[in-house]
From TrEMBL:
<feature type="active site">
    <location>
        <position position="166"/>
    </location>
</feature>
<comment type="similarity">
    <text>Belongs to the glucose-6-phosphate 1-epimerase family.</text>
</comment>
<comment type="function">
    <text>Catalyzes the interconversion between the alpha and beta anomers from at least three hexose 6-phosphate sugars (Glc6P, Gal6P, and Man6P).</text>
</comment>
<dbReference type="InterPro" id="IPR014718">
    <property type="entry name" value="GH-type_carb-bd"/>
</dbReference>
<feature type="binding site">
    <location>
        <position position="55"/>
    </location>
    <ligand>
        <name>substrate</name>
    </ligand>
</feature>
<feature type="active site">
    <location>
        <position position="271"/>
    </location>
</feature>
<dbReference type="InterPro" id="IPR025532">
    <property type="entry name" value="G6P_1-epimerase"/>
</dbReference>
<dbReference type="GO" id="GO:0030246">
    <property type="term" value="F:carbohydrate binding"/>
</dbReference>
<dbReference type="Pfam" id="PF01263">
    <property type="entry name" value="Aldose_epim"/>
</dbReference>
<dbReference type="GO" id="GO:0047938">
    <property type="term" value="F:glucose-6-phosphate 1-epimerase activity"/>
</dbReference>
<feature type="binding site">
    <location>
        <position position="84"/>
    </location>
    <ligand>
        <name>substrate</name>
    </ligand>
</feature>
<protein>
    <recommendedName>
        <fullName>Glucose-6-phosphate 1-epimerase</fullName>
        <ecNumber>5.1.3.15</ecNumber>
    </recommendedName>
</protein>
<dbReference type="GO" id="GO:0005975">
    <property type="term" value="P:carbohydrate metabolic process"/>
</dbReference>
<dbReference type="InterPro" id="IPR011013">
    <property type="entry name" value="Gal_mutarotase_sf_dom"/>
</dbReference>
<feature type="binding site">
    <location>
        <position position="79"/>
    </location>
    <ligand>
        <name>substrate</name>
    </ligand>
</feature>
<dbReference type="GO" id="GO:0005737">
    <property type="term" value="C:cytoplasm"/>
</dbReference>
<dbReference type="InterPro" id="IPR008183">
    <property type="entry name" value="Aldose_1/G6P_1-epimerase"/>
</dbReference>
Length: 297
C-alpha cells in the first residue's frame, strides 16, 4: 500500500487501485474508491478549511447526535458534537495481509487518527469538561472500507455520549435506490415530529425528505441497492442504530454548502451509530463502535 500525509490530508491506496482520503479536520473521510468508482459523496461547496464541518464524506458524530439536549452534559455543544469540527492528529498507518499468499501486507492498510482533551478547542473543553481520548481507525481493503472509533474515559468522572458515522454514500440516482435490512424495525421519524413507527416494508424507497432513526436493529447489515442490484453493504460493529437521511429539494436548497442543489439525487446517508439513549463510560472504561462497508460492484 502507499500512504501520503500532506496538506492536512492522508491518502492511502492499494495495488488493486482501491483508495481512501481522510481530511485531518474532523478525521473526515472525503473519498473511498473501489473498482475505479467513487463511493462517497461530497458537496462541491463543502468547506475543507476547518471553518465548518464538511458537507459530505463521513463526518464523525461524537459525543452527541443531533441538537444536544439542553438539560444534558453535552447541552452546550454544537449539533452532532465536536469530533467532526476538531483538528485530529494523524497517528500513523499499518498494513496487513489477510493470510492469503501476498507480498508484504498489500491486502489492507489501516490509518489511525487521534483526538484528546488536550487537542480540543477551549470552547469545546469548557462546554464538555471531561477527560477523554478518541482513536479513529480507517481501514482500506479491496472493495472494503471500515472505520472504528475507540472512546476512552481518561478521567475519574463518568460521562455519557452518543456516536454515529454520518456517511454520505454516492449513488447514481436516488429514484433507483432501495435501502434494505431495516424491515420490522422500530424507527423515530423526524419528519413526523419524532414519533415512533414500525418499518413494515423490508425495503425503503426515497421519494422525498427522509430523516429516520432506526433503533435496536436485530441484524447487523443495512444494504443500498441501485436498480435492484446490491451496491453497498454497511455492517454495524458494536452499534445498534442506523439513520437514513436524504434532505431532498427544500433542505438541499436551505444548506449553503450543499451543491449542486440537484445533488440530493446522487447521495443517500446511511449512518450507523449508537444514538438511541446514551452510552455511559466510567473512569478508565472504553467503548468501540464502527462500520464495515463493502462495495458490491
Ligand atoms: O443525520 C440526519 C441529521 O441529523 C438531519 O436531521 C440533518 O440535520 C443532518 O443530520 C445534517 O446535519 P448537519 O448538522 O450536518 O447539517
Amino acid at each position: 500500500p502507499s500512504v501520503h500525509a500532506e496538506q492536512g490530508k492522508v491518502v492511502a491506496s492499494l495495488p488493486t487501485g482501491d483508495s481512501v482520503e481522510v481530511l485531518l479536520f474532523g478525521a473526515t473521510v472525503l473519498s473511498w474508491k473501489s473498482n475505479g468508482r467513487e463511493n462517497i459523496w461530497v458537496s462541491d461547496a463543502a468547506k475543507l478549511d476547518g471553518s465548518k464541518p464538511v458537507r459530505g464524506g463521513v463526518p464523525l458524530v461524537f459525543p452527541a447526535f443531533g441538537p444536544p439536549p439542553k438539560d444534558h452534559a453535552t447541552g452546550k455543544l454544537p449539533q452532532h458534537g465536536f469530533a467532526r469540527n476538531s483538528h485530529w492528529e494523524y497517528l500513523g498507518s499499518s498494513s496487513s495481509e489477510s493470510g492469503k499468499l501476498s507480498s508484504g501486507g498489500d491486502d489492507s492498510v489501516k490509518l489511525d487518527f487521534g483526538l484528546g482533551t488536550a487537542e480540543l478547542s477551549e470552547e469545546a473543553r469548557t462546554a464538555w469538561p471531561f477527560d477523554f481520548s478518541l482513536v479513529y481507525s480507517v481501514t482500506l481493503a479491496k472493495d472494503g472500507l471500515s472505520t472504528m472509533l475507540n472512546v476512552q474515559n481518561k478521567g475519574e468522572k463518568s460521562f455519557e455520549f452518543q456516536m454515529l458515522l454520518h456517511t454520505y454514500f454516492k449513488i447514481d440516482d436516488i429514484s433507483k435506490v432501495a435501502i434494505n435490512g431495516l424491515g420490522s424495525t422500530t424507527y423515530i421519524d423526524k419528519m413526523l415530529n419524532a414519533t415512533e413507527h414500525q418499518q413494515t416494508d423490508p425495503s425503503i424507497r426515497i421519494h422525498g425528505e427522509v430523516d429516520r432513526v432506526y433503533k435496536s436493529i436485530k441484524q447487523d447489515t443495512t444494504s443500498i441497492t441501485q436498480d435492484g442490484k446490491p451496491r453497498l453493504d454497511i455492517v454495524r460493529e458494536g452499534l445498534s442504530d442506523s439513520v437514513v437521511w436524504n434532505p431532498w429539494i427544500e433542505k438541499a436548497k436551505g444548506m449553503g454548502d450543499f451543491e449542486p442543489k440537484e445533488g440530493y439525487k446522487k447521495m443517500v446517508c446511511v449512518e450507523v451509530g449508537a444514538v438511541d439513549g446514551w452510552q455511559k463510560l466510567e473512569g478508565g472504561e472504553s467503548f468501540e463502535g464502527g462500520m464495515r462497508c463493502t462495495a458490491r460492484y
